[in-house]
Amino acid sequence: MLVPARRSAFTSTSGLVEFTHSYTVFKNAGCSVTVASPKGGLGPADSQGFAFYANDPDSKPLVAKRPDGSSYVPLTENTTAAGSITNAQLANFDILFFVGGTGSMWDFANDANLHRIIRVMWESGKVVSAVCHGPMALVHAKLSDNSSLVAGRAMTGFSNAEEEWLGSSNNVCGLCYPGNEATGCSAGLSPANCSGPHMPTEYAKQGSFLLEDGLKASGAIYMSTQQDWARFYFRPHVVRHGRLVTGQNPGAGRETAEAAYDTHRLLRMTKKKNCPIWSQFADTFCSPVQQTAADPPVKCKTNGYIPKC
Description:
The chain is an alpha/beta fold. It has helices at residues 16-28, 47-52, 104-107, 112-123, 136-139, 160-166, 181-184, 211-217, 253-270, and strands spanning 2-3, 36-37, 64-65, 71-72, 80-81, 95-98, 127-131, 154-155, 221-222, 238-241, 244-247, 283-284. The protein has a 6-stranded mixed beta sheet. Strands 2-5 form a two-stranded parallel sheet. A hairpin with a 2-residue loop joins strand 10 and strand 11 (244-247). Helix 1 runs parallel beside helix 9 (253-270).
């Protein structure tokens, strides 16, 4: 199940490649994918993503054009409402995957149906995963004993440093970093000329919070990798702790989905019901150590291991 955000106010949306890359991974693995959102219906992708990733091979087959020439993703035009998915139906799902994007900063954090789905999937021994701002859905997620799902578990997600890099620029201008205005921005937009909510300075004003702060406050063991903006644009970083799989930023959509599917593969192989979750192939797909400009591009491994328990 892929869950993009659905929010029209504040021009908040879901991340284009976080959706297209993860969807492609799951479909290529032979999965049947249900695209859901908190309220159902339209789950728009970020408009700048269509320009920035116009030639992306995984995105192009999933993007269409309207009569007016604007781009859209047909798969997110009529999403399934999370509230319509019953607990009994969740037995048919193996992987829960939350797509990020700025819409998730409001849509995910306090949604009761998303928290119900997370709880049922986790307590049924399924894979729970999220990328970029998608872990907002996990920050306040509780299990049946009222304990926090994320407490004590290694995780990543969009970092405070990355939010600081966005600075006071609006999320609409998130791709308008200096030097890329002509390629990634809509007409009239630049880092100095934006409208709408400012990230991250307006999260609190609009009833949200910084993801990294929220995860730490809930007891998660947060880890991230430093970004080198001069050489990479959102370098991928993925952390797996048992059945909990999280990716740091938009660049990790593919790798997070690969890690989530690999976790499902390992669960099918082991079929061990009595192993403590802490012992089940807890690893890090991409090293959480500081990256430098001299490092080669990250290559995330896709094969976990099965320790004895």
